[in-house]
Amino acid sequence: MKILHLVSSLGFFGAENVVLTLAKEQMRQGLQICIGIFHNIKAPHLEVVEEAKKYKIPFENFSCRGRFDMKTVLAIRKFIQQKEISIVHSHNYKSNFYALVSAIGIDVKKITTCHNWTTNKLKMNLYKNLDKLFMRKFDKVIAVSDVLKDEIVRSGIPSKKVSVIYNGVDVEKLQVACRKLQDENYGKKLRKQLGIKEDEKVIGTVGRLTEEKGHVYLLRAFKEVVSELPDTKLLIVGDGPLKESLKLKVQSLKLEKNVIFTGIRKDVPALLSIMDIFVLPSLDEGLPMAILEAMAAKIPVIATKVGAIPRVIENRENGILVSACSVQELTDALQTVLRGDELAKQMSDDGYHKVAEEFSSEKMAEKYCDLYEGLLADKNSD
After folding, report:
1. For residue 258, which of 284, 280, 281, 228 has the smallest C-alpha distance?
2. What is the model's pLDDT at position 14?
């Protein structure tokens, strides 16, 4: 079975992480995998290429000069035919479009995974609506949450064509990385590098700096936390269009000594290892890899009850759920965990077991493999 994953990327974020994690696990399970990556000539983002090289995942760059590049269509089409691809699996609206056009007249199955639509801006809403039209032409549509599936079905795509497969993380890899970091005493070195004292508590969040990630609400809640627990630091890991406005917000709240913007980092497991709490204050999500990775690393998690997050987190059992945009709920949750060592330990342990049992990369890949085999069986019986 030969699979071509198609992805158009602006960096290495949640969806890209899912694609790489899925590809790695599928290769372990014996599938022949290639990741097709769009190389935007005007604004190249080849972070996915770097990650693919790191894990020795086969990849193919497809040069693309604009929204519609006929040369790109022909290159993908030629690749599908020459490599005898069984299934084209695309992962966002641009790759969905190119997957459909490139496969016209070719006997190949087409699958798309909808990772979420994360903005209400007019331009992106247009792309979102176009994407829903593209999805109607696929053999199978995968949603990463039940909420997302409901939205897809409401757009007119038959329910029988839409399945839910939750994202998964490589739990073993994260645990090995965390143990190695502990053995090397790397945490102390990293704290010193970031200017964090040994006795200071660390709250962290990882994600693109965009409006839907809700960082501004976290900053306002953190202001309340610092007023009572001044020896606390906040790590904001990631980059994005709101970086400068968030820095201005930090200044207006007089939190410059307590908030650290790390930018994009390639050592997320190391950063997780020094966090006492992981927070995801998002206004909208599918199933974020960030909380799965934090739970797999045995970090207590506080997150908003949006998307599929409540499917993962059972409130005050393996994490704490708060309402989106609620500064008070977020403040209370942060203070509760910072003061409650027993609760933090319980959440860490239960969170790890939840992810290991239900949201591993192995389980995710098995479900996709079952779906692929079902589609190919249908094809062969036609």
Report:
1. 228
2. 75
Q: Which CATH number fits domain 171-358: 3.90.79.10, 3.40.1390.20, 1.10.3470.10, 3.40.50.2000?
A: 3.40.50.2000
Amino acid identity of 348? S
At 346 the pLDDT is 94
2-168+361-381: what fold? Answer: Rossmann fold (3.40.50)
pLDDT of residue 16: 87
Extended strands (E) in the chain: 2-7, 32-40, 59-64, 87-90, 109-114, 140-143, 162-164, 201-206, 232-237, 259-263, 277-280, 301-304, 320-322
Question: C-alpha angle with apex 120: 132 to 43, nearest 5 degrees?
Answer: 80
Nearest Cα residue to 158 out of 145, 148, 149, 146? 149
**What are the extents of the domains in the chain?**
2-168+361-381, 171-358
Tokens found for residue 372: 């692929």
CA distance 23 to 21: 6
Contact 14, 290 (CB under 8 A): yes
Q: Is 238 helix (H, G, I), strand (E, B) or coil?
A: strand
Q: For 122-132, what is each residue's pLDDT tens digit? A: 556 776 778 88
